[in-house]
Amino acid sequence: MQDGNPVPDPVCGRCKTKIEMAVRTEALYRDGMWFHTACHRAGADQLFRATRLAEVLTDVKRGGDDHLAPVPGRGAAWMARGVGEEVSSPPL
Question: What end-to-end distance do the CA atoms of the chain give, in Å?
Fold first, then answer.
């Protein structure tokens, strides 16, 4: 005799494969979805890297990265030189 409604076998929220009964000890339930532990770890790592990249890009957009700023004392001609143009030394 079964208690309650039959529940379908869980499916991994990341790789969309069925989580077998023998593997359920290696699965976890988060945010209303089932995940293989490896899939959950890969997703968490991906989210961490994306968040870190977004913070760096936001910082650069705000001007927090000083190495991209023009060097004081050099004219616009130095910055506007053509690509591939040979320059023996930077103007002072």
Answer: 89
Please report, for the chain, the start and end positions of each structural domain, with discontinuous segments joined by +: 1-61
Note the pLDDT tens digit of each residue in 42-81: 999 999 999 999 988 887 776 655 555 555 555 555 455 5
DSSP 84: T
Q: DSSP label at 18?
A: B
How many CA atoms within 13 Å lie on the side-chain side of 92?
A: 2
CA dist., res. 92 & res. 77, Å (int): 12
Q: What 3 state SS string does 29-72 have? A: EECCEEEEHHHHHHHHHHHHHHHHHHHHHHHHHCCCCHHHCCCC
Q: Could you give the angle at the alpha carbon of 50 between the alpha carbons of 48 and 53, nearest 5°?
A: 110
